[in-house]
Queue: 2 jobs
Job 1
Amino acid sequence: MSTTDALLVVFAMALVTYGTRAGGIFAVGFVPMSARVEAFLRYLAGSVLVALVVPATVRGGTEAYVAVGVAILGTLVLRKALPAIALGILAAALWRAYMGAT
Amino acid sequence: MSSASSPDPQARAADGGTPAGAAQASATATFTCAGCWRGAKAILAVLPPVFVFGVAFGIAARGHGLEGWLAALMSAIVYAGASQFAVLDLWKTPIPWLPLLVATFAINARHILLGASLRGLCRGLPAWKVYGAMTLLSDLNWAALIAAERRGERDLGYLLGGGLMMWFTWVGSTIIGAVAGGLTLDDVKNYALDLVLVTFFATTLVGLRRGRIDDLPWLVAGLAAMAAVWFLPPNWHVLVGGLAGGLAGLVRDEMKRA
């Protein structure tokens, strides 16, 4: 691939990607704000997160379940995200060390 | 739907119809350095995995015949890891333009939902600030901001601050990977760094939960995302799950009202 072509590809990718970043806020600008839209956007935020977490956890196998489970419990108990993440990772590392590789 | 209002974010402050029980939604958002700083601090925990994935991308890019400076440029202006990895396999002559751009769009289409959900946090801000901040929108700084919003954060700078931290980390680590080398994705797995990202999202989710009202939408979102993983081409699951969950909540509310 020539340098010019490669540059064209990278710029085209950047354009498409920025389109997705700006597109959401641009699109909702056309929708009049209502209680319904407000509620939808709120469900959307949580649902997107669920859609990020669930497949990644299933794909990650047992140690991902351990990490996510401990992190969620940790957040509920400690009310702080950072130590909860650390505990989750630690639990997964211990699991991997003592229960064998997945 | 037919009465389209201006897409200009400034016009949104004038939009009527603020729902009852969502007092914060009517407040105007801000954009300050202090907000940037808060966002930058909130994102610190996920910088190590971002760094390692950046190094891995630099190495992988060189392995696929990209020059180092081109890999760095891609990280700088595309700034979307999953799609950058994906196009490496399409990096050949003649350029497969359509698959390449479709893949880029498909993998990054979830940003549309992320951006849409930030509407309340853009209220009353000038367009250049809103669209400027969106250049650095990604799952991680978005998740951090959404969680902070629940605690009363009203500053879009939060998104920019977190995004800037990640941008410098991502570009810097790409350069390091392209210059150095030796690390593979397997090493990343060995240090459990890939799990940092998913636990980060999971803890965000805990803060976001309002109670049983979220049960049905989230259940639908999870099932739809898994169905997308099984039945659709890769990388549609966030978009499908997010939309399905959002619609499920909306439909449930409508049926309750009826």
Note: Chain B has 15 helices and no strands.
Job 2
Amino acid sequence: MAACTPSRGVSFDIEQGEFFGLLGPNGAGKSTLINTMAGLVRASDGNIAVMGHDTVSAYRQSRAALGVVPQELVYDPFFSVRELLRLQSGYFGLRRNDDWIDELLTTLDLGNKADANMHDLSGGMKRRVLIAQAMVHKPSVLVLDEPTAGVDVDLRQQLWEFTTRLHEQGHTIVLTTHYLEEAEALCDRIAIIDQGELVALDSKHALLERCPERKLTLVLEDASINLPPRLEEKVVERDSNRLVLMLDKRHMRIGEVLQAIQTHGIELIDLHIEEPGLEEVFMQITRKDKGVRA
Amino acid sequence: MNWSGMYTLLAKEVWRFLKVTVQTILTPVVTSLLYLLVFGQALEEHVQIFEGVNYINFLIPGLMMMNMIQNAFANSSSSLIQSKMNGNIIFVLLAPLSVLEFYIAFTLAAVLRGLLVGIVVYIAVQPFLDLPVHSWGYAVGFALLGSATLGTLGIIGGVLSTKFDQLAAFQNFVILPLSFLSGVFYSLYSLPETWQTISRFNPFFYMVDGFRYGFFGQSDIEPGTSLAVAGSFFVVLALLTLWMLHKGYKIRH
């Protein structure tokens, strides 16, 4: 869908129909990349194409293919929600678009706010209007720049459902987010950028594989047992009745640990496994990038 | 051309000023009537500039033009600075609109506001005066040219300013003096020679003078010359604005 090579070596393709995550610490250049894609920022070097249309030489086609939900809750205070949607629709050359506008208002649960001024809407409502504005010209690609920042749990769930539905309908979705569990739950493929450079680009599963250590917490009657040396070196925390081990899931089975405990005849009271998440991968990659060992 | 997009942007800009008509239309009318009352009444007995034209009548076209150009400037500049400060300018920037479409929509909206203000002032003074129209062509032509020029200057002001304060400085230190010193209240020939020379460098003077010719068939300068000077000024500004917009200066970073 989008091939981009702006400054400092960020170069990648997003496939059509993909749910793509763009992650990175604050100031990494995520918004700059998105804004360049949307033509709001001019790339100093390189180029970006949306659905094959260059964002500079074929800006009309590329902009028509793209819907952007901005990070900030921006709006024109002169107009009501419906007026704003009609205007946005008109900018894209769609003069009679009320059926789709009504559908968007209903889908985003804004039906009874159509005639309200944006002033009078809550933050969550404003966010929905921004999504409706981005979708008003039925773009193939929807870019959401931190859409769930500062929204409550209910709305976050609704937004997740809405974007998932759009994805199922064939839209390409590009999401930037600070919430890594959000990217983990929704995205097929993820790019991590840091300090303006692409530091990782892979499928979610492949990225998760980069951090193979799972955390095993055991609550025991007595934790002062001697485990076989191979397991003992994996212990990272121990107190009177609790043992915490970091196990590489590729080489070490949990059964092996349980067997060792059984051999010592110690009663296992509870057990908890934490699988590595995107957060660990993210931390590992962005720290490594700064020359810090994870 | 994205005609529909351009039309929508124009409609939005017009709709915007029509939503606050007290500020955008009524205020300039009241100001004009006050000027007329104060200057007209105070000076009518003492000043006659054109033969057979009393001072109040002389004043009206100048006041109309001054209001038209100030409002045309205010329209595009305030819309741009507000949308830049609010951040909602991105909705226009994200749309498939060309630089030319953007320019035409903003300028035409400014022209429409200018004309509307001019017409309302004209209607408002009718009960008190009998203002002739010598040539509708010149009157309307200069009204369009003046509003379009100031609409364009408004775009430049709105684009260049990053704060309301900067725009206010542009408005108060450039637009306001140039419009006040453009011969609204006097004839060029009533000034000392030095000031006459200086006034000839003020492009607004040619707009006011040419517009006045449309009413009385008399002017300080040959209307064709005024048309050429004001027209050239407009073309230069329009090209400069299109170039700035094309570069994305202070809009697309």
Note: DSSP finds ten helices and no strands in chain B.
